[in-house]
Amino acid sequence: MKKPRRVSLSTQIVQELTKKIETGDWPIQTKIPTEAQLTEQFEVSRNTVREALQSLIQAGLLESKAGDGTYVIAANKFEANMYHELGKADYQEIAEARQLLEKNLAFLAAKKRTEEDLIAMEVALERRNNPAFTLEELALKDIDYHIEIAKAAHNSIMLDVYQSISTYLFQLIFDHMQQDVTFNHDDSQQLHIELFDAIKARDSKLAETIVGKISSY
Amino acid sequence: MKKPRRVSLSTQIVQELTKKIETGDWPIQTKIPTEAQLTEQFEVSRNTVREALQSLIQAGLLESKAGDGTYVIAANKFEANMYHELGKADYQEIAEARQLLEKNLAFLAAKKRTEEDLIAMEVALERRNNPAFTLEELALKDIDYHIEIAKAAHNSIMLDVYQSISTYLFQLIFDHMQQDVTFNHDDSQQLHIELFDAIKARDSKLAETIVGKISSY
DNA sequence: TTCCATTTGTTCGTATGTATG
DNA sequence: CCATACATACGAACAAATGGA
């Protein structure tokens, strides 16, 4: 039915641009190349470029300003929907949403993780384990690890949601670590290893519990 | 700010066509005039007509078939959402995300609901309670009720996430009710009343458990 | 402030490809 | 096979908004 054997040029451009945005190649607020430049770059007419841009504007990923340029305003569709809300969401709300989502994701991951997921998680876990890291670096690696768990949950909606707020998580986790004078690198790593083991053992309840401990650490 | 002093031709055409559709002048399944005819009728180019049609197709009001014609498939945007079909895989993911989010929201609502929230929930609960409702109507009221619970959770992020997927929930809930031959209106309402009571009593664990029962009903 | 180059917005005309009945 | 109708793509022109000189 909806199987166009040949993907339209504008669709191809949409895919290329989406990739740039989602991989962070073009972070939020980036001013993307002008229509004329994209026309040259993709070797298509301006109309075709505009059609692709229209799709992304419609999806809420881009915003264009006449006489100025076109800007990235969201990294994915969920973020596009929550674009307005997140900015004014307060700290407590983000922290609360984070804990709930991480519990949900750990629960799902324990049920659905594959061997490949375990490998990816282990790599991220290892990267996280460097006592020489500053708190800043640790916070970043921490988010990476939790995103791997989110991927292991095999639910693209929940993954999107988590990735959307992960932008805001950095500051949150960083502050959390910094304010907690009792924060201990090894203890933290130990808890994350336990979480990995629980997911590996497919113990969803335990995984959920451990996330609770990590968040309220 | 967003005050274009001159409405574009395609926008004007969108408005004209929308009027035809919403007033019932062009009922559902009507085959609308061809692009060539609309071109003549509005005295604009075919491109401009197509741009307008694209908007309405995107909005879900129209559907076009190459070599055949363009048809009205929904009378308004809300109805258009109902026709929004989802892939089988997405369907499962949405169902999963729905259950998790509703549990989270009920949990939070039980902890943070105010007296005003209870009143709003009670109103939505009462609206839901009409044995004469078709399953379609019931599904709509059901979503309304759960959105009230989401509001009572007092977390704008979680509310936003839930509202984002609620667009897709209608079809899901509707199918769920329809496929379940044991579905009983009174039993369902009873469970929803129990959920209300649990939130009123601030029993977050019980609220979460009841949502689990409702989802797996 | 005005003016101007840049960039997006709108519209047209045309050509060719693809799907339907 | 064929006429019809939508799908895709190109090129061109001018309007309107913006930001900076």
Concise account of the structure shown:
Chain A is 71% helix and 5% strand. Chain A has helices spanning 9-22, 35-42, 46-58, 77-88, 91-112, 115-128, 135-152, 156-179, 185-200, 204-215, and strands spanning 31-32, 62-65, 69-72.
Tally the beta strands of chain A: 3
User: What portion of residues of chain A is helical?
Assistant: over 70%
Gross CATH architecture of the largest domain in chain A: Up-down Bundle
How many domains in all of chain A?
Answer: 2
Report how far apart the termini of chain A are. Answer: 52 Å
Labels describing this entry:
71% helix, 2 domains, Four Helix Bundle (Hemerythrin (Met), subunit A), 10 helices, DNA-binding, elongated, homodimer, 3 strands, mainly alpha, 3-stranded antiparallel beta sheet
Describe this structure as you would to a colleague.
2 copies of one chain form a homodimer. With 217 residues, chain A is mainly α. Chain A folds into 2 domains: 9-74, Winged helix-like DNA-binding domain superfamily/Winged helix DNA-binding domain (Arc Repressor Mutant, subunit A); 89-215, GntR ligand-binding domain-like (Four Helix Bundle (Hemerythrin (Met), subunit A), Up-down Bundle), CATH 1.20.120.530. Chain A has 10 helices and 3 strands. In chain A, strand 2 (62-65) and strand 3 form a beta hairpin. The mean pLDDT of chain A is 86. Chains A and B meet through helix 4, helix 5 and helix 8 of A and helix 5 and helix 8 of B. Chain A binds a DNA duplex (21 and 21 nucleotides) through residues 4, 6, 8-10, 34-36, 44-48, 50-51, 53, 64-70.
